[in-house]
Structure formats: structure tokens, C-alpha cells
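Here we describe the complex-level prediction in full. Unlike the single-chain runs in Section 2.1, the six entities below were treated as one system.
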Amino acid sequence: MTKPFKRILFTGAAGNLGRRLRERLHEFADIVRLSDVADFGPAAPHEEIVLCDLGDRDAVMRMCEGVDAILHFGGISTEEEWAPIMQANILGMVNLYEAVHKLGIRRVVFASTNHTMGMYKTTDLVDATMPPRADGYYGVSKVFGETLSRYYWDRFGVETVCIRIGYCWPEATNYRQLVTWLSLDDLVQLLHRSLTTPRVGHTITFGISDNEGRWWDDRHAAFLRYKPKDSSQQFADKLPAEVQYPPADDIATFYQGGVFLHNGPKYRP
Amino acid sequence: MTKPFKRILFTGAAGNLGRRLRERLHEFADIVRLSDVADFGPAAPHEEIVLCDLGDRDAVMRMCEGVDAILHFGGISTEEEWAPIMQANILGMVNLYEAVHKLGIRRVVFASTNHTMGMYKTTDLVDATMPPRADGYYGVSKVFGETLSRYYWDRFGVETVCIRIGYCWPEATNYRQLVTWLSLDDLVQLLHRSLTTPRVGHTITFGISDNEGRWWDDRHAAFLRYKPKDSSQQFADKLPAEVQYPPADDIATFYQGGVFLHNGPKYRP
Amino acid sequence: MTKPFKRILFTGAAGNLGRRLRERLHEFADIVRLSDVADFGPAAPHEEIVLCDLGDRDAVMRMCEGVDAILHFGGISTEEEWAPIMQANILGMVNLYEAVHKLGIRRVVFASTNHTMGMYKTTDLVDATMPPRADGYYGVSKVFGETLSRYYWDRFGVETVCIRIGYCWPEATNYRQLVTWLSLDDLVQLLHRSLTTPRVGHTITFGISDNEGRWWDDRHAAFLRYKPKDSSQQFADKLPAEVQYPPADDIATFYQGGVFLHNGPKYRP
Amino acid sequence: MTKPFKRILFTGAAGNLGRRLRERLHEFADIVRLSDVADFGPAAPHEEIVLCDLGDRDAVMRMCEGVDAILHFGGISTEEEWAPIMQANILGMVNLYEAVHKLGIRRVVFASTNHTMGMYKTTDLVDATMPPRADGYYGVSKVFGETLSRYYWDRFGVETVCIRIGYCWPEATNYRQLVTWLSLDDLVQLLHRSLTTPRVGHTITFGISDNEGRWWDDRHAAFLRYKPKDSSQQFADKLPAEVQYPPADDIATFYQGGVFLHNGPKYRP
Amino acid sequence: MTKPFKRILFTGAAGNLGRRLRERLHEFADIVRLSDVADFGPAAPHEEIVLCDLGDRDAVMRMCEGVDAILHFGGISTEEEWAPIMQANILGMVNLYEAVHKLGIRRVVFASTNHTMGMYKTTDLVDATMPPRADGYYGVSKVFGETLSRYYWDRFGVETVCIRIGYCWPEATNYRQLVTWLSLDDLVQLLHRSLTTPRVGHTITFGISDNEGRWWDDRHAAFLRYKPKDSSQQFADKLPAEVQYPPADDIATFYQGGVFLHNGPKYRP
Amino acid sequence: MTKPFKRILFTGAAGNLGRRLRERLHEFADIVRLSDVADFGPAAPHEEIVLCDLGDRDAVMRMCEGVDAILHFGGISTEEEWAPIMQANILGMVNLYEAVHKLGIRRVVFASTNHTMGMYKTTDLVDATMPPRADGYYGVSKVFGETLSRYYWDRFGVETVCIRIGYCWPEATNYRQLVTWLSLDDLVQLLHRSLTTPRVGHTITFGISDNEGRWWDDRHAAFLRYKPKDSSQQFADKLPAEVQYPPADDIATFYQGGVFLHNGPKYRP
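The structure predicted for the assembly as a whole is:
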């Protein structure tokens, strides 16, 4: 069967999403090049494995050679001290785009996060034209990625779809997760549309399933033809029926970022 | 079965919506306190009945004691002379919020109306950020309620969901009602979501079913996770097939308020 | 069976859409008056046929006499030299509205086109309040039609629905057509709603089916109660799976107008 | 010298602004009818004095007879308990507009207040299309006045200019007053423009002088041709040079309403 | 002294504005080519005169040869029957832009009109992104010119500044003219800035002096660095002091277009 | 004479702006602490000098101790390779805000740049709510600073004014500089207002003088009461009179970033 691409690169293959997506990536290309910073086992027949520290410019360049498109899920994906975030998510991003530009790779799908806008309230409706409001160092680093990739599109024509991924785990177990849940199948569809739409320019889209209620208005990415098939509503009945309003000063329910607000920023005292 | 609340208060229990909603309110709380200005019969086992003139501050305070949340459907609900509207919808609203604030009640669901925006045209699309355009004294009094409750949120943290209720009767019998119809089931769902969403702040939402066509864009209340299940389309075939365009100066089809525009304002000559 | 109107006029009956729509028009009126510039065969029992050059004011006046409403599909419908476009789409439009105004006809449904906004990018989301961006002389002439009919509404109360029709052919065969496809059934529904909604004022609406993905946001015409039943998704699987990104300077994929951009404007060297 | 009007009515003549404006009102009309609830001395030759309780419908009707236009400064103008505010600012407003409508008076200039938007932050820029955010009962009552007068315009064609008056005292003595200061001369100009512009419909305008810095964007009322001549900058040097940032939770500097937030709402314990 | 251009073309030299501007055009270029449809006298030393019917494509081409930039003031400039407007303002505009494109002329300054938006109300604030609302055939033809020139920019890179000229006569004698007045000096400055700004793309700007009050918000053309020096305020005192509100249905004061609304559209009965 | 503060910190004292501003800083505080990475001479009597590498967390902490407010002009201020920019503008910014937060310093004025939005066109009007469009690594790093400081406001209440400084050199010598010029006096005023306004929250403002023409709309920072006294118009006459339109593909005139677009991004081949 013909596949969309000959070879794609997926970074962050050993992470949570990387491990869950791995078996689905063969739908996109004949050869799937997987990368992460540390060893994560052997390659399947249609796979290539490249170990790479994103902070190492030359290694990043080698990692990118010969690929048609990139799914960039690598880097730190939770709240952390600044040093490792800067190495992986800031310097790593710069290294990646310098390589992409130099090698003439046309498109990147960038795993951004809902924590780029975690300081909006849970009663706000956010769209892609509104200023980011990061909720920690992790979120700040992902806004950086969106800014840098925008620059590479405006100036050099490198196309990027930034997916602000919601809560992508098998099950939603509280109100916030009901709103932000993203199924693996829907993520795969969104990756497919992001890779195969003829033109994407620089686009910010929101990665959620067809949940009831939403905090994010994705109309500016409507041209991607993403149409989620799953819904978090299947988990709604498992939540406790009894309502107890959260304390007025409970930031984890007041702001969209949820418990991430309790974590960040992490720094030595 | 565990219910969302221990005790809720429903005002306006003897009104049209009150009578239709009464049998559904037990879904929300162990004890449903019902109130209206005049006697409306005995309480069921899970009910409490409190007769109360909303214009009587002390009575309102007593009515509110001990409840977890309030569904405020009381007051005048149609075009009238100013005196009774002021007593019930203006003074009554002030009395209610003073009690709510003093008693530390966290949330009110306020039955507002589409007549807060009845002077928009039937070709306009209205959302919750647009200025109200009331179509009579009744509508003006409901805008007052939205303004007052906003103040109690901004200043004191009392949460209110204002539902601009459409045409909530069993059947839609003309074009305007096709657009604005709200089924009882959908209203119950919307009340449930308004009561149980962890945070609502001060929210204006539009109470309509999943009708084809709409005059109101509810996206700013999307976080409520209200998803209507009914549609007025079931009544569409009963409307006359023959089209006769309304006279150019027929305000009841030109403005969203419909025949209410012919009624108001009522005042002695 | 009662029909919405006694007599409607359909101009452009010999065109592509005219031929496909002809058998459906009897749903709208007891008598369907069909018109085009050149002979297109005999009338069916419920039909009247009027040959008419839109550039001929007196002929246009006669064509319009006695009708309840007009579906104006006449004129040039593709990129052309200016002279014939001006005759049919500019002068013809003026002649039509002078007749409509003089005869007191209340409503026109005007076949506008997506080429009124063909210079927006394929990553843009366009709505009816945004300035037109025509992609050729044909598109410019249709913007003229929208402007003129707006004037006749603002000043004289003639109601017009301008439908910016997408790709209305039996099958979608490329990405652009997937996004812009309009089924005949959906077009018929949209015409029906445009004719029978009690008030339309001057409305610009987008004629597309319920395709996945969209370039056009039709919320300002939501009151028309148009709800497409078809989707281009049925054709998606026939497109080639392999992705080859279009050249960076390929205007036919960069702009919404598609290959029309290669055609226009046509003029003698 | 010809004056704009034969007779105008000024309500609230015994109030702070009424007393300061009184000597300027003769510029507007041959006869100035002054009114307040209690005696405030004798009339000058060009004046008429009418004592009137705004809560008394019949008295209000008599007060309005024979005037060409009204400057409505009457009512409560500071934070108070609800009962007197309702009597003067709610019922009084209804009485006034019923009289205006019945008598065919074409225009009212309504003294609204910046406290209609006192819950916006001092870093916000507010314009007339944004939802009011009252900062107390007084502000809520003025929003009511804006809503009611809007209705009388939309439905009956009564024209009103609502002036959200800033800090109109001789001298500005703190940062908030520097921003919101309005000189008497500028107020007189604004009243003149509000009265004499041929069309005003229903307009909300912001009454401030040409101060440096502003919280309010008045561009939607630009057609009034108001051009302030004074500036609070003359008082800037008298403010203390030393800066001490206000406490983070000091609502009187956080919100535009200033110390009014400490006052309201007043109600019996 | 060095002048901005070697040769510019000014069309409509025999019109009202053409005659008044003629003596000022030498500031812009060494050679000023003047054109109109009928003889208007001899050329001055630095002038060239070309008689040209704008409806004649070949003549228009010849008229444009060898010029660096064009000030297009030609065509009908008042309400008229459609036939002459179409010939001069529609066909003439097409002929001009075909010539401009073919000859590689980089920039046109187009004399548009405030009658492109005459159906906005006198209480509205209009900016360049809002949809035009023409008030007659003349206004409709100028919207056409703006649409066509936009197309030539979007598709071919021809730059145009469309100036929506206000009331450009020596003196303002009523309220509408106070608002819309444009002095000749300010027009000359605006032409200069429109011609000499390095980049203008396709810009719509509003040609008024620094009058008090305004209906038009020109911020989207701020980059032109136009700063009017004159003001209509000098004429304000000559207006009658006495105010008599216009009848509620007086369209000439209700809409921005003024008395033009009484004229149009002109067509044979 | 009383000064606004006891001690302020100015970083980047050895840079271009630092050297020019140094003699003016005593207006702000009794003691001015100056800092830069390398030695820049001795302190004046009212000055303290602290040498500090912004990439050194502990040194930054020491540098910030005991100050009332910070003017942060330190870091790289031109297009450069990524490594030094990351060290000074990314890591340095994080170090600064960790210190500010820990030490409880209430306010920072951050020298951002117009290159945060250099990829907007010279015909665009940009305001503070629009997404940044950086024009190189330098601009990207300043967007990072705006994002990080926003986070520290949203989460911790640290106030920051981000000044997007224009062209701040003694003289404007081309069209771009005419538009973007900022005089030293105006910068000093803007710094003063940014430091002394009681509340600023997180504000983005545009640092330009009162030039004719503008690309940036600063209305969202109007509350700062910044009122420029100088204008670039004094330099306008020195520009060449002759106009030669820039080539259509000249990015330095097409985009606001100007020649910076030719510089970046710098990276080893």
C-alpha cells in the first residue's frame, strides 16, 4: 500500500506519547526514524533508531538527514528546573530548525502543550490568535518553540503545525481531564492531517477529542480537516456525583493549567 | 444514590417553568426548597416549601438560609407595568444577592431571558460579549439582574450563571419559536451543568435546544459542557408551506423580541 | 401540495447549475419561470421560458414581471475578458435590481461565488464581514453584485441572499475540491432556506456541504437554518495517498482561488 | 443672541455638579428650568424652578412639560443603601422616560458615571462597546439608566447621550484623579455638543479632560466633536515624587473604581 | 530643485478637484501630464495634455505611457444614471489598470469617495476594514474601483492608495460639511504622502482635515504619515446657533451620505 | 529633592542606550546601581557599579539585592549567533526573574524591541494584543523575555513594563527611522512613567516619539500617561526628495524589521 512519505523522523520516541504512538507511525511512511536521548531498545524492520541529544547541534543535523517530514515530540515534557528545559526545549529547538532549514525539510509537526495557555481561567475560551499565558517553565519553553517556528515560516518558508496537546492518557479521571482529554486515535488523525494537508504555513491547533465543553476554540485551524471521533463523555459517569465547590483561591481549578501551577517554577532555594 | 447537593432553593415554583421543572429538581439535591409568593400546594417528601415575597428583605434572608445553591426563577416573567416588575425583579434581586452574600452561598443560576436582547435583528448573531438590547421593561429588569450578579462576582466572588432562556414550551408553532425553542430536558441538562461545573464565575449562556439556525452564539459558555439533545426541527413540517413575506415594517419579525415588542412598555396613560 | 410561492424566476437556466437545478425548482413554486440568453428547449407544464439578454433593460423588466422571488444564476460564471463580464454581470445586475425595485419584488437569491475571496490563503478562515479579495475579473464582477444588492437593501429594502457557491459538481477530485464541495441537494436546501426565511435583509452566506475542514466561517448566516446533509469525505479515499508538497510559489495551492488564478485576467495583448 | 434652545430642563440642580453648572446653563437656552427634590433658593430671571421627587410619576410628568431637551443630573450620586438609590435612580429614571416619551421630547443628556465600569482594572482600556462592570449599587443603578435609555432609543427613537463622568472637581490630588479629571469648562463643552449635534441616537461617551494617560477610549463618540481644552497635567507636579507601590491586594488602586470599592454595597447588617 | 518624480499623470484635470489641484501638481514631478475627456485649454511649460475617453482602451494605454505614477481623479464624480457611470468609472477603471499592469507602472492614487460608505449612520465610526455601504450608483462604482485595484495588488503587485475624499470645497456650511471637510492643502499633503511612501500595498485612507469630531477612523493608514494641518472649526461659528432636531425620518441627517441619498439612484422611469 | 526611589538597578550600563541614559538615571533614585558584564569605568558619587554575567545565577541574585525597581537593558541587543543570545537573553532573563521573585522586588522595566514584530509588514498596524512576529534570533529572545515576565506577573504578581524600543539614536536618516525614531528625552519620560505609575501589571508598550505616521498602536498602554514631546519630523527634510520605489522583493522595506532581516539568523555553516 502506498504511504504518504518515504521516511519520517519521530523525536522523543522513548517518552510517554512516543511509546504509545510508535506502533501507529508506520501508517505515515515506509521508514520511521525514531530518536531519543537514551537507548530504548531495538528497531522493528521498518524502523531506524538514532540516539541523539537535542542539545548537540551536529548530532541533530545527522538525525535529520534524509527525512521528508518531522514529528518533534522530543525534549522535556513536564515542569522542571530551567537548566534541563533550556538544554532540550530551547537549544534543542534551535538546533532542530537550523538543521531543518539547512536540509530543506519542508514540514515539522511540533508537540506543543496546553500549558502554553495555562494561566487563562477555566471559564475562558482561548483561540490561536490570543497571547499565550504559560503556567510554568515548561509552558514558557513551548511558547518559545511556537515563536521560533513562526519565525522560520515567516522568514524561510519552513512549515510547522504546533499541536497544543491536551491530556493524552487512556482515561479521564477528573473534571479538567474531561475537558482536555485527547484519545490516541484522534491524535493519530491530527498528526495525519497535519502532515498531509498541502499547505499549513505556521499553524497552532488544539489537540483534544470531541469532548463536551471546551476551553479552546480551534476554528483558525479548521482547514486541517481534523475531525475527532472520540469523546471523554465515556468517562463522565465515573466522576463523583456530589458537588463540592473548590475553595475560592484554589488555583488548580481557577486556571486552565491545573496542578501544573503547584509545580512551577522549580528552582533551587 | 448520591446527589450533587444536600439542599437547593428553587424560587418561582408556581410559575410556568417552575411547575414543569418541579418533578425534575430532585435530581439535583436531597432536599428541594421551593418558594413562591402565594400558596401552591403541599410539599412532597423531599421538598420544603417557603412562601416569600421577594420584595421583603427579611423573608428573602430566611428563604435562603441553609441552601447550597439557588435556582432563581422567581419574579415577573412577562411584560408588565413597571411597579410590580421593580418590586419583584429589581428589589427582589437585590434582596436575594444581599442574602446570598451574607450567608456565603457560592452559586446562583439566574433565569434571565432572550428579551435582554430582543432589539437585535432576526438577521443578527448575538454573543455574550455584545451589549444587551432589551425589548421592554421585562427585558430591562433582567439586564439589571445580569448587571447586579456580575457585580457580586467581580467584587465578592459569588458565582452566577445567567441563562437567557428561549421559548420553553412544549411545542414550537412559528418561525421565531423554531429558532428559540428550548426543550425541558435540555433545560434540565443546562441547569445541571450550571450547578455542577466546578468554576463558572459570572457566565451568560443562551438556553436553546439544538435547533437548526440560531441567533445566539454560545461559544463563551462552552466550558459548561451543555450539549442539547433535542431540536425544534420536529415541529418544522407543521408550519405552513406557503411563504408570504412579512410587511417591511413588521417589528415582530424584524427584531428578535417578536411580539413582546407590541406589548411594552406598559404604563398607565 | 401547497408550495412556498406561486411563481419564481430562475435566470441562467441553460448554465451548468441551471441544468442540474431545473428538475428541483418545482419544489419552490407552482410556476417556474426559466430564463437564459439563448434558446434551451421547450418548457415543461409548470414552467415558463423567457429568453432575455441581461444587458437589455426593457427585456429584463419584462422577464421580472409577476414573479414572487428571483433566483439569479444568470451571467458569466467563469474567468473571461472584461467586455462580456461587464455586459452580463455588471449591467445585467443593475438592470435586474432596477426592475426588482420598480416592480416591488421583495427578495432575490444571488449566485455569488467563492472567487470573491480567492486571494485569501488556503490557511485563512474567511467570514462574511471580512473584505472581499477577488481573484479575477469574474470574482470582481460578483463583488460588484454583492455591493449593488447591499445598496438596494440599505436604501430600498430589497432583500438579497448572496450565496458564495463552492465547487458544485458531482465529485470532488482534489484537496481544494474536498474543502469547497457543495452537493446539489445541499444547494437546493440552501436555496429553500434563503427563499423561505421570513427576514434575510442582505446576507452573505457560503455554499458548501458538511465537509471535514473549512476555509469559510458561515456563522453570520446561521439564522438561515441551513444544515448540509452531504460531505465530501466520501471522495477523500480516492485521492492519492502519497504526499508531495506543492512548490512554495504554487499560487493555485497558496490561495483559495485555485487554478482560477492562472486564468485571469484575460485581456487582449 | 440666539441660543440653541428655548427651554431646557436641568435636574439635580442642588447637587454638586448642579450648583457648579448652574451659571453656565444660560448658554444653552432662553429659559433654564431647574429642578431638585428640596428647596434650593430663588430663580434668576431666565430660570424656572420646579421642586420634584423623581419617584413621583405625576410630578415628573409636570416637570418635563414644555421643554426642548433635558440634562438629567438628578438622583443619588454616590454609594448608598439600595432603597434611596432605587427610588431616585431606578424609579426616577423610568418616570422620566415615560414622561419624555409621552411628551415627545427628543433628547436627554444623562449624567452616568465612571463607576459603571469601576471593576475594570487600572491597566485596562475600556470603550463603549465593552460590557459594563459596575463597582457598587450606585454604578449598578447608572448601568440601569443606560440600559433603559437604550431601550427608549431602539424602540421609540428617544435620543440619549450617556456621559460617564470622571472626577469633576476643581483639583486632582492623586494618581486616579489625574487620569479621570474633568474640568467644568470641558463638561460644559461636552454638554453643548451632546445637545446640539443633529443626530446622537443612543451614545455612551466618557467625560474626561485632555489628560495624559487614559483608561477610556472614546472613539465611538467621536462624532460628537467634543475636544477637551483642559488637562490634569497642571496638577501633576503637586503629587509626591517618592513612589511607594501600593500593596498587591489594594483594590482601590487595582480597579478603576478606586475608593468606591471600599464603600459598597451599603446595607443594614 | 529635485522633485519626487520625472513624470506623473493626473486624470480628470477639468473636474472640480482637477482645476483646483492643477497649480499644485508641479511639486510632485518635473512633467505633469494632465488628461480629461474634453478640451480644457493649453498646457503650461511643465505640463502635457492628453485628451482621452476612459472608455477607450487604446487611448487609455497611450495616455499612460511613460509615466512614473498616476493620480486617477477622472470619471463621473456625482450621482448619475448608470450608463455614463459604467462607461467612465467601471470600464475606465478596467482600462486604466490593464494599461498600468502592462506598462509596469508601480503606483496609482485613486480618488475614491466617502459615498462608498454613505449608508453608515452619522453616529457610526467607520474604518477601512469594514464592509463598504455605498449610497448610490456613484458610490457603488467607487467601491468597484477599490475592489479592482485590490485585485491588481493581490495578484500583480500594483500599488494603490484609495482616498475616500470628504467634502473638498473652500468652505463648510453645515454640520455634515464640518465633519467631512478637506482643505486643498491637506489633500496635497495626502497625495504627496501617498505617492512618496516607499511601500503602500493597497491602502484605503480617509481624506479629511483635522476637524473636530469624525466619522472615520483612519488608523489603518497611519503608516502614510498624513498629518492634516487645517480644521473645519474655522467655519463652526457661522452655523446657526439655534438647534432644531431634524425629523426622525430625515435620511440626509440619519446616514453619512447626506443629500446624495435623495439623488440616487437615477434611472429612467 | 525627593526622588521616586531610594535605589534602582540599571543593567546593560555599558551598552549604547546604557551609556546615553546613564546621566539621566539620577532623576529616578538616590542611588543608581549600574551593571554590565565587563568593566566600564568608575562610579559617580550617587552610583554603585556591579559587574555581573547575567548567565551566572548567584551573581544575578547579588546584583539585585536591595533595589526597589529594575531597568533591565542588559544582554545582547543585536542579531547574533544563538549561543551568546541564549546565555544573556534567555538564561539571564530567567536568572533575573528568579532573583526578583525571591527578593520580593515589585517591578521591572524590560527593554524589549521592535524586532519582536519585525515580520509584520510596513503597511500593518500592530498593537500589543497581536501575536509577536520576531525577525531573527534577537527578536525571538526578546519575545521569550516578554513571555517569561508575563508568567511572573500572572503567577507571582511581579510587575513588568516591556518597552518595544524603536530606533533610539540621535538622528533618523531614512524612511524606516522616521517612523520608528525615539528620542532620548522621550525614552526617559517613558521609563519614568513605567516606574512610577502605581499599577502596571504586565504591559507591552511601544517606545517611539510623536512621529508623523506610525506602525504601532499603543492604546493598550495609554494608562502609562506617556506623552512624547519630540518628533522625527525634524529629520524629514534631509531625506532625498526623489522617489524610487524599492524592488518588489526587497524584504528590508516590505517588513518592519528592516535590515535586520538580512542579518539573521546567524549560524555557522
